[in-house]
Every structure is written in structure tokens, then in C-alpha cells.
């Protein structure tokens, strides 16, 4: 699968087959994540792969993740270990770095026939508690991972038209 196919076939998957992902496959995926760029190449990131049913259940009960999240074979928490770092542009580096890394995850997963869903609905503090993440770190996003109930395929996406989002030389409010 080429990058274009991965981009076009990736979509938010909220229903998964009850099928385990091999450790070898998980390692291939995290190796692609590892290749992501980060500000000053600091790589201030950690990724917790939750595979145990009991932990997933705790995330559901305590950290308020949605129902389907606990039913995914794997839940990945993307953590920045330096949440206070701001880049010169005033944007937190950890948020950008983790977003790039997790997007690598979604596309590598798509190449492997695996589905993902970005998850922002979770309680920050309780998630850290359940996953034993030090308090000074920050969970930027969590993500589900698993074999999708329906196979991924290239399909149309509900997206804004190009002319509404892209401008040459000057910003312009889109109509
Ligand atoms: C930063 C971010 C947070 C999201 N949080 C959630 C979430 O908490 N729960 C959920 O079901 N979907 C969540 N989504 C999935 C989006 O709803 C979905 O990606 C979007 O509708 C586009 O659809 P697509 O991923 O199928 O292209 C999130 C997506 C992103 C990028």
C-alpha cells in the first residue's frame, strides 16, 4: 500500500474484530511511530499499549472512555514527558510531536489492514492514574487499534473543499 492509499483508506474505526494483534505487528507499528520527527529531535514521548482487558475496563469505569474504546484489542496512550516546552512560535511542542507520531501510527496501521480512532474524550488525571503515568507528564491523545469489523477501503471523505482552506500568499477568510 502506498501513502496515498493509506491516507484515503484510513478512517475512524469504532467497531473491531475480536482478534489479537501479534507483538511483531505492534513492534512494526511502533517502529514507524519512532521515525516521526519531533521538535529539536527531542522525542519526549512515550506510548503505552494497553492490551489487558482489566486495564481497558478500568479506563472505561474511571477515565470515562467511550464504550467502543474498551472493546478495541489495543488502546494506545500517547504521552509527552515534557508538557511545559513551548516552541519559539508559542505552540506546545509535545502536542505537535505526539500528533505527528500518532498520525504515523494511523497510517502504518492502515497499511497493515488495521483500524484506529483518535480519542480525546478521556479524563486526563484518571487516565494517568490507571496507566501509572507520572503526574508531571501529559496524555496528549489516546487511540484505539485493531482489525476493523469491516475492511478498510478507499472512500470519499466528508471534507471542506480545497478552495475553502488553501490560499496563495495571503490568508483569506473563506466564504
Ligand atoms: C484530535 C481528535 C480527537 C478525536 N476524538 C474522538 C473521540 O473522543 N471519540 C470519537 O469517537 N472520535 C474521535 N475522533 C474521530 C473524529 O470524529 C474523526 O476522525 C472525524 O470525524 C473524521 O472522520 P475520519 O477519521 O473517519 O476521516 C477524534 C479525532 C481527532 C483528530
TrEMBL record:
Residues 7-63, 66-147 form the Nitroreductase domain. GO terms for molecular function: oxidoreductase activity. InterPro entries: Nitroreductase, Nitroreductase-like. Keywords: Oxidoreductase. Belongs to the nitroreductase family. The keyword Oxidoreductase applies. This is Nitroreductase domain-containing protein.
